[in-house]
Amino acid sequence: MELPRFHRLRRSYYRLEGTRCPGCDERHFPPRSVCSRCGLSGLEPQRFSGRATLYAATRVTQAPRGHASLAPYAVALVRLEEGPLVAAQLTDVGEEPLPAGTPLEMVTRKVRDAEEHGLIVYGYKFRPRLEEERP
Amino acid sequence: MREVGVLGIGQTPVGEHWGRSIRDLAAAAARAALDEAGMARVDAIYVGNMASGLLCGQENLATLVADAAGLLPAEAVKIEAACASGGAAIRAGYQAIAGGSHERVLVVGVEKMTDRVTDGVTAALATAADADFEAAHGASFVALNAILMRRYLDERRVGREAFAPFAVLAHANAAKNPNAFYRQAISAAEFAASPAVAEPISVLDSAGICDGAAAVVLAPLDVCRGRGSETRRPLGVRIAASASATDTVALGARRDPLVWESVAASARKALQQAGVGLKDLDFYEPHDAFTIVTALSLEACGFADRFAAVDLAKEGRFAAGGDLPICTLGGLKGRGHPVGASGTYQFVEAVLQLRGAAGEAQVPGARLGMTQSVGGSGSVALTHILEAV
User: Fold this and answer.
1) Would you call the peptide bond into B195 cis, given omega within 30 degrees of 0 as the criterion?
2) Are the C-beta atoms of residues A33 and A41 closer than 8 Å to each other?
3) Angle at B175 between CA B25 and CA B281, to 5 degrees
4) Which one from B17, B56, B83, B327 is the annotated catalytic residue?
């Protein structure tokens, strides 16, 4: 991934910024320009909390080019507290698969190998939540 | 709208063709189809291909194919719909004939995957997913399907052995297809012992990386009928329906990732167009890139209730001799899955079945069959229904 593309994505990658529809209140991640639910344009930025639960995960052993140094790694669909289902790597997990519903939280980590231009891409990953919220 | 018929078919064997380039493969399949149709020229060429740019460093592919097959100066364009490119190219050819733009078209599905080593192929296939929000995060194509299979296993409360019948039947059928890549039968025990690619997906859940090309010549149906006695075709075949539908590219953006709306919508439209029901079909060629795709496709089309495809598979309903044979010449799993060519191979194989020319793999008395090509993880689907006439 080269600089222009990464620069465009930085808000989403660094702070999990998506969009919210002022018309129907639908929250989207990744961000959209047109609401997937009601078709309205002019969506507002929405910053997500980073709290999520696991939908399902797998472990990648044959990594695509650009991810070799991380392999084997876990990749998952995670359900954000605010609704959207997001594809992301899991980190700080062992080899055993985590059960669906495991509470997770967002952290910032290196998501790809440094490529020929030397750019290291950082972004969101999810790890098992360290501390449960106190009542 | 004019009725569209099949004038000729051609295919190369599927395999690792180290000595043959993408243009050689496409030209060989094209010439075979044209020879069978008894034609030297066509009005237009539609080339179904997913990733020649990434896999071979070659774009402007359709012109290259027109040149390699000796068909200049025919109109030529590449049609891309990820792994469904072969089906999308058939539909482009169908529309050109049905709408009256052209009288004779050639459709060639081709993919040359072995010019790259595995990590490059994996990266190329991952471009079928959302580049910024799936592939960039290391979610390979197999990983996304593995997530779906894990969830299916969790919700259905079964082990991965429930998917064994799909791989076993595909290999059993491929053994009867001289053009298939994997011509050896496998057992459920071998499936169980197969190593993981991305758990729970194992090697034997997955269609392999390979090369191949398949081609079809399409024309108005009355022309195909009139020429019946001049060619080797014992029976004519018409395209009774051609339909396409889409869903979100990113899996997470769907209401329920285990419900494949694009597949459901394209099948529904196709059945309506053909004026037939699921029970009228003599066979079905699903896009079995992974066993989970077969199950989700069967359920989306309505052949099985939700989470019931694995049960029907266990009863043998989809195997040769069952009430709905699938992957009759091996499917993507057994024949091999040269991605952008697979939809065209399915079509060619359906034509063989409807002509009664499928040899040992023949579905007895087949008159009506459905082929379905799916791109991404259920994000685009092309469904065709073919009928013997």
Assistant:
1) no
2) yes
3) 90
4) B83
Does the distance separating the beta carbons of B120 and A62 come in below 8 Å? no
Environment class of A31 (CB within 10 Å of its CB; exposed 0-12, middle 13-18, buried 19+): middle
Q: Chain A contact for B256, CB < 8 A? A: no
- CATH 3.40.47.10 placement within chain B: 4-117+209-230, 142-197+241-388
Dist CA B350 CA B366 (whole Å): 9
Length of chain A: 135
CA B24 to chain centre: 21
The CATH architecture of the domain made up of B4-117+209-230 is 3-Layer(aba) Sandwich (3.40)
Q: Assess B196–A contact: CB distance below 8 Å, yes or no.
A: yes
Read off the amino acid at residue B6. Answer: V
Instruction: Return the half-sphere exposure (C-beta side, CA atoms, 13 A cut-off) of residue B295.
Output: 28
B351 three-class SS: helix
The CATH number fitting domain B142-197+241-388, selected from 3.40.50.720, 3.40.47.10, 3.30.300.20, 3.40.50.2300: 3.40.47.10
What one-character-per-residue DSSP string does B284-317 give? EE---SBHHHHHHHHHHHTSS-TTTHHHHHHTTT
Q: Evaluate whether ipTM surpasses 0.90.
A: yes
**What residue type is B315 in one-letter code?**
E
Band of residue B233 on the pLDDT scale cut at 50, 70, 90: very low
Tokens read off for B36: 């069978």
- B295-338 residue pLDDT tens: 999 999 999 999 999 999 999 999 999 999 999 999 999 999 99
Query: Given B17, B171, B287, B337, which residue is catalytic?
Result: B337
Q: Which pTM value belongs to this model?
A: 0.96
Residue in the structure block whose two tokens are 């000729």: B8
Measured CA to CA, the distance from residue B2 to residue B91 in angstroms comes to 14
What is the C-alpha to C-alpha distance for residues B106 and B113, in angstroms, rounded to an integer? 22
Residue B389 burial class via C-beta count within 10 angstroms: exposed 0-12, middle 13-18, buried 19 and up: middle
Strand order in the sheet with A17-20: A27-28, A17-20, A44-47
CA distances to A10, B39, B104, B159 from B149, in Å: 31, 46, 42, 10
| C-beta atoms of B123 and A65 within 8 A | yes
pLDDT digits (tens, 9 = 90+) for B210-220: 999 999 999 99
What are the residues whose beta carbons fall under 8 Å from the beta carbon of A91, sequence distance 6 or more? A74, A107, A109, A125, A126, A127
